[in-house]
Amino acid sequence: MPEGKAPENKAQAERAEARKLPPPVAALERTAAPVSSLQGVGPAIARKLAPLGIRTVADLLYHFPRRYLDRSSLTAIGSVKTGEETTVLGKVCDIESRPTRGRKSVLTITIFDGTGYISGVWFNQEWHKERLREGVEAAFSGKVQYQYKRLQMVNPSYDVLGGEEGEDRAEAIHTGRIIPLYPATAGVTSASLRRLVKRALEAVSGMADPVPRSVRDKFDLTPLEKALREIHFPNDNAALKKARYRAAFDEVFMMQVGLALRKKHYEAQARGIAHDSSPGLTVDFAQSLPFEMTGAQKRSWREISADMKSATRMNRLLQGEVGSGKTVVAVLALLKAVENGYQGALMAPTEVLTQQHYERIGQMLEGLGVRVELLTSSTGRTVIDNVASGEVNIVVGTHALIQQSVSFARLGLVIIDEQHRFGLDQRVSLSEKGEDPDILHMSATPIPRTLSMTLFGDLDVSVIDELPRGRKGVITVVSDQSQRKGAFAMVGREIKAGRQAFVICPLIEESEKLDARAAADEAKRLAAEFPGYDIGLLHGQMKSDEKRKVMRQFASGRIDILISTSVVEVGVDVPNATVMIVEDADRFGLAQLHQLRGRIGRGSERGVFILFSDPSTDEARARLDAIKRYDDGFELAEADLRIRGEGSLFGNRQSGLPDLKVAKLSRNFELIRRAREEAFRLVAADPDLSKIEHVLLRWETNRRFGGSLDWLFKG
Ligand code: ADP
Ligand code: MG
User: Fold this and answer.
1) What's the start-to-end Cα distance of the chain, in Å?
2) At 4, is the pLDDT very low, low, confident or very high (cuts 50, 70, 90)?
3) Of the ligands numbered here, which is closest to the C-alpha atom of 267?
4) 67-181 is classed in which CATH architecture?
5) SS3 assignment, position 26
6) Which end of the chain is less crowded, N or C, counting CB atoms within 10 A of the terminal residue's CB?
7) 307 alpha carbon to ligand 2 midpoint, in Å?
8) What is the tens place of the pLDDT at every residue in 119-153?
C-alpha cells in the first residue's frame, strides 16, 4: 500500500543502507526507524500509536504485554464455583443496561464459552460498553456469585483479547496457551497491536544482537530477537521468563553502560585543580576535634582528599544520614581548598539550614585564621566584594550564591548540600564561578542502593554508614489520640529535667497560612499546659530573621518546647532535644518522618519519637509500620520503594535516564549490581566502545538514551 513517502525513494534508501551495512546490522538499525517505515503503517496508524509513546519500530517492539493469561489457569464457565476467585474467558453475547432508582444504572454484560453463561455487573459505569461490545472475546476475573438464577461477578476486572470491531476473526484467535495482555489503549486493540508487532519482527528479522557474546554467555541471555518474539508470542512459561529476564537485563545493563560512558567522558575532559600542597589547616583542624572520627568518616575523607589532590576534577557524592557527621568531612574538604590558596563555597537549600551551617562552621574554625562568611539574598555589598577580592576563604550560602553579582577570586571547591533540592543548572551555575573547581555533592536522604546506582551512577560515591559512638538512639512510638495525655506528660517530665522538645504540626493542606494558624493555636494550648516554660513557634510565614532568632533561642536552650510546621525538617542540630511529637503523622512521607526523627537523640540521652495518627489508607498504615520497624535510613528507603512502587522515584525526569519498564529497582538489586560491574569493566577496557565487538552496544545504548550520548562519540 503506497503511503507517506513515495515507495521508490524508500526502497532506494533501503538499498543504499543495505550496501553500507552487513544485513544483521542493518536490521538492528531498522529498529530506530519510524513506525511508518513498516509496511502497511500509514499516517493514520502512526497517529494512533503516538499517544502510546510508540514512534519508532523499537518503541513498538518494546511495547510489552502488561501481563499474561495462562489458559491452564482458566475455568470453564460450566464448572465455576460460587464464592471463588475465578478467571473465565468467553465471547460477549448480551449487553443490558437498566436504570434504577435515583438515576443510577446497572450494566450487565454476559459472556458465553460453550459450557455456560456468566455476567459481569457494574453500577454507574456505562463506559464498559465501549470496550465490551457484542462479539468480542474477553476474560473476566472476580468472585463468582449466584443471584437471580444466574452466575455473575460484580465489578470484575477484565481484559479484551480480540474480536473487536473491524477485526479479522482469524487474527483475533489465540492459539497459544499463554495469552499476552497489552495495556488498555484507546483506538488500538490488542489484536491490531499484535499484528503490528508481528510486522515489526519481520522487518528486523535476522538482526544482530547488540550485547557482546561474552556478556550474553556470562549472563546466560536469550538472543535478543528470540526474546522479543517470545515476549509477544509466548510458547511456554520457562522460555517467556528467560525472555523477560533478557529484557530486564538489557534495561539495567545499557543504563549502566551509558552512565559509565558519561563518567569516563567527564573524567577525560574535566581537567581540574590539583589541591596537592602539603597539608596544614586540615591537620590542625583534625587535631582540634574533640572526638575521634568514625571509620566511615575517615574513609570518606581519604576518598575525597585523594580526588582533590589529583588533577582530575572531583565529582563525588557524600551520602550519610542526618547526624552521621558529614559536616566535619565537608569542613575538611573546604580547608583543603583554603590551604591550597583557593576559596570554598557551600550551598544549602534553605535559609535555616544555611544559617546553621554558617554558625557551626564558624565555631569549628575558630582560631584557625580562616575567614567564613554568610551569603543569602539579604547579604550586603561588602561581603560580596570581599568574596570577589578573595579576602573571604569560605562562603556558606543559599542559592543567592549563584546570582550574577557574586564572583570569586579563586574558587577551588563547590559543595552542594542536599543536592537533590537543586536543579542541575543551579549546580552547574555555581561551579562555573570558578575554573573547573572540584565538586562535592552531599545528601542526607538515604535512597536505596539500587536507585543511587542509577540516579547517581555517574558520580563517585562515599557513604558514611556509621553513626558516631555514644548515641543512645531513638525509640519510635505510634499512638492514637487516647494516648495524648501520656505523651504530653512525658514532654513535661523532659522539660522539667532541663531537656527540650519539638512538636511538629500537621500539614493541613497546601496552605502555609493555615498551617501557621494551627501551629499558633497549638503553641497557645501548650503555654497554658506548661506555665513557666518558654514555648517557641516556627512556621513558613515568618521572616527569615525571625526564624533565625527562634532557632538560635532553641539551640541555646532558652526555648523549652518548639512548635513547628515542617520547616525544621532539614538540618537543625540541638543535641539537648529528646522528644518529638508529630501530629497527623500519616500525612508525612517516610523520608520526611525519618528526617524529623534524626533531629532528636543526637546527644547522650535516648530520644523518643511519638507519632500521632489515624491512618486512613493501607499505604499510610504500611508507612507507619515501616518507620517503627526500621531505624536505618537505607532499610527504610528500601521499604519506601516497596510501598510506593517505582514510579514516584523516577518521577523527576531531569535525570535524563532511560525508563525501566521490566526491571524493578525494588527487586533486582543483584541484577543491577552485576550489570553495573560488567558495564564499568567493559567501558574501562574500551572507553568509547569503538572496538568491533562493542560498536553495536554503543549504538543501542545511545538509542536507549534518546541520542543524548551522541556527543560522547564526536572527535
Ligand atoms: P550531619 O551533617 O551528617 O547531619 P554533623 O556533621 O552535623 O552530621 O554531626 C552531628 C553531630 O555529631 C555534631 O554535633 C558533630 O559535632 C557530632 N559528631 C560528628 N562526628 C562525630 C564523631 N566522630 N564522634 C562524635 N561526635 C561526632
Ligand atoms: Mg582535584
Assistant:
1) 42
2) very low
3) 2
4) Beta Barrel (2.40)
5) helix
6) C
7) 5
8) 999 998 888 888 888 988 888 999 999 988 899 99
